[in-house]
Automatic annotation (TrEMBL):
Highest classification ranks of the organism: Bacteria, Bacillati, Actinomycetota, Actinomycetes, Pseudonocardiales
Region feature Disordered, mapped onto this chain: 364-413
E.C. code: 2.7.13.3
InterPro entries assigned: BphY/WalK/GraS-like, HATPase_C_sf, HATPase_dom, His_kinase_dom, HisK_dim/P_dom, HisK_dim/P_sf, Sig_transdc_His_kin-like_C
Basic and acidic residues bias spans: 388-397
Keywords per UniProt: ATP-binding, Cell membrane, Kinase, Membrane, Nucleotide-binding, Phosphoprotein, Transferase, Transmembrane, Transmembrane helix, Two-component regulatory system
Any one GO MF annotation of this record: ATP binding
Catalytic activity: ATP + protein L-histidine = ADP + protein N-phospho-L-histidine
Compartment(s): Cell membrane
Name this protein carries in UniProt: Sensor-like histidine kinase SenX3
Membrane-spanning residues: 6-25
Coarse class of the protein's main subcellular location: membrane
Originating organism: Amycolatopsis rifamycinica
One Pfam family in the UniProt entry: HisKA
Length: 413
């Protein structure tokens, strides 16, 4: 039988429990309300480590990994869930000396397109922990190598005509009394000095295109006008080589660009086609609009370019046929200039070639987007005079790029 005392105690216990539960719930609610919205500092630090462009690994006193990010795998700092032995050994030294240390973490063997030059810095964190931070310096090393090669190539290319001019001048002095010999050597001096001047001019142009000087502002340029001017520049050399250049019909296409640079690029492609084509063979120019890009293709029936050389023809001073290039006075910079002109216009240059068949170089430049697409082409066609058509002799069939010989006017490099 329940007594009044026991009943009162039970009711008191229930009330006390309810009060305690209420207080605990209220305290929990206050803690949750006081907790800041968003990630904690620890979470932000973890995100920072994982998103870093540098490889980061934290090691304990035993050389075991405590923390690392995905970039550490990409740079070779971590392999098979273990840190690079060079990093672990350096971490032991840093733990003993408590002084930061720089180490070379470059791959010991070639791994395709993986980073080639990786520099690591090991720093103490205290309590036996160290952090290893790896930085990829491959691009800087590559650019330095390119700069050294460029200086060496320029020195070599300049030395050849300068040396030839010096020797020819001595020959002229020795043959001062022989008018015929003086005239012969004088002509050679003129050719070498012209080549030297052309080389210097193209080096200056290439330097400007690579960022040494600010490029001019881009304007709306008529493609047909560029083709006409480039044809005018190439007429003399084409006639001398007994080569006729044919073009397709005026296109009325417009691009955003610098007319002078575009004419220079197209002229270089035409000069290249003329220089590497046999006498009497055709060279053609075609224009078209494809996927928002204006494509200007120059096709020849020349010697062609081997597949293993097609990726190198746009390098400075590289020549597919060194003997022929020397004979025509080429500098080896023309296609490099074309590549940089295209890149500075947000475009590209493509190449299709087959030895013994010929080559197609395609300059791709973003088309001008007019506020009134229907009116702009009509205005361009109305204001642009028709380009001069170079007539082809009857013995030489007219060649027009259709894409059958070179799909899409060539592939992207």
């Amino acid at each position: 039988m329940t007594t009044p005392v026991s009943l009162a105690l039970a009711i008191g216990a229930l009330v006390a429990g309810a009060v305690v539960g209420y207080l605990l719930a209220r305290a929990r609610t206050r803690r949750e309300e006081a907790r800041p919205l968003g990630p904690t500092v620890a979470e932000l630090l973890e995100r920072l480590v994982r998103s870093s462009n540098n490889g980061i690994v934290v090691l304990n006193r035993f050389g075991d990994m405590v923390l690392h990010n995905p970039r550490a795998y990409e740079l070779g700092l971590v392999r098979v869930n273990r840190a690079d032995p060079r990093a672990r050994k350096a971490a032991e030294q840093v733990t003993e000396t408590d002084e930061p240390l720089e180490i070379d973490l470059s791959p010991l063997e070639a791994r395709g397109r993986q980073p080639e030059a990786v520099l690591g810095q090991v720093r103490p964190l205290g309590d036996g922990f160290t952090v290893v931070e790896a930085v990829d310096h491959s691009e800087a090393i590559r650019l330095e190598a390119v700069r050294r090669d460029f200086v060496a190539n320029v020195s070599h290319e300049l030395k050849t005509p300068v040396g030839a001019i010096a020797l020819l001048t001595e020959a002229v002095l020795d043959a001062a009394e022989d008018v015929a010999e003086v005239r012969r050597f004088g002509g050679k001096i003129l050719r070498e000095s012209t080549r030297l001047g052309q080389l210097v001019t193209e080096l200056i142009a290439l330097s400007r295109l690579q960022g040494a000087e600010r490029l001019p502002d881009l304007n709306v340029v008529e493609v047909d006008a560029v083709v006409r001017e480039a044809l005018g520049r190439t007429t003399l050399s084409a006639e001398s080589a007994d080569i006729r250049i044919t073009t397709d019909h005026p296109s009325g296409l417009l691009v955003e660009g610098d007319r002078t640079l575009l004419v220079t690029a197209l002229s270089n492609l035409l000069e290249n086609a003329v220089n590497y084509s046999p006498a009497g063979s055709p060279v053609s120019i075609s224009r078209r609009l494809a996927d928002g890009m204006v494509e200007i293709a120059v096709t020849d029936r020349g010697i062609g370019i081997a597949e293993d050389e097609q990726q190198r023809v746009f390098e400075r001073f590289y020549r597919a046929d060194k003997a022929r290039s020397r004979a025509t006075g080429g500098t080896g910079l023309g296609l490099a200039i074309v590549k940089h002109v295209a890149a500075n216009h947000g475009g590209s240059v493509g190449l299709w070639s087959r030895p013994g068949t010929g080559s197609t170089f395609t300059l791709r430049i973003p088309a001008h987007v007019s506020p009134d697409p229907a009116a702009e082409p009509a205005r361009a066609a109305k204001t642009s005079p028709a380009p001069r058509q170079e007539k082809t002799p009857e013995r030489t069939p007219r060649l027009v790029v259709t894409g059958q010989d070179s799909p899409d006017h060539g592939g992207n490099l």
